[in-house]
Task: structure prediction
Amino acid sequence: MLAPRRFVLLIIFVVACAPPLLAQGSPITMAKSFTPSTVPVGGTSTTTMTVTITNPNAFTVTGISFSDTYPAGLVPDVVGAYTCSAGSATFNGSGWSLANVTLGAGASCSVPILMHATIVGPIVNTTSQVTGTGVPPGGPTSATLNASPIPTLSGWMLIALAMMIAAVAATRIRG
Result:
C-alpha cells in the first residue's frame, strides 16, 4: 500500500514541477561582424565592429550581460550610437561590457565600434558568454578582421615614379 501512495505522490510532484522546468527560455544570441572585414594596418584605415544581441524568446529577458576584451592588434577609435538600453555600459582601451540590458520578446539591439588594426594578419575577437535572468547562457561569438600590410613601393619603383613625375613636369614647363 505504501508503494502505490509513493508512486502517486511522485507523479503529482513531477506534474507540479514540470511546467516551470520546461518553461525555461532559449539562450540570448549574439552575432559579431567587421565591415569591411579587411583593412590595411594603420589608424586611417578603419572598420566597424558590430555586436548584435537578440532575445529569441516570447517574453522579456532582463539582466542581460556580457563582455568583450580586445585582442592584440585591435584598437577602438569611436563607440557608435548603440541601441541597447543598458543598465551599465563600460568602454575602455582594453575592451567593453554591457550589464543589466533588458530586451523585449523577439527584440534585438546592437553596438557599433569604429576600430583600426595595428598588426598584420587575421585578428580574431571573441566575446564572453551572454547571460540573462531566467535563460541559459548563450554565446560566445567571434569575428575575424583581416589586417593587410600597407602597400609600399620598392626602391626601383620610387626611382621610376620620380623620373615619370620629372618628365611630366618638364613637359608642362616647356609648353
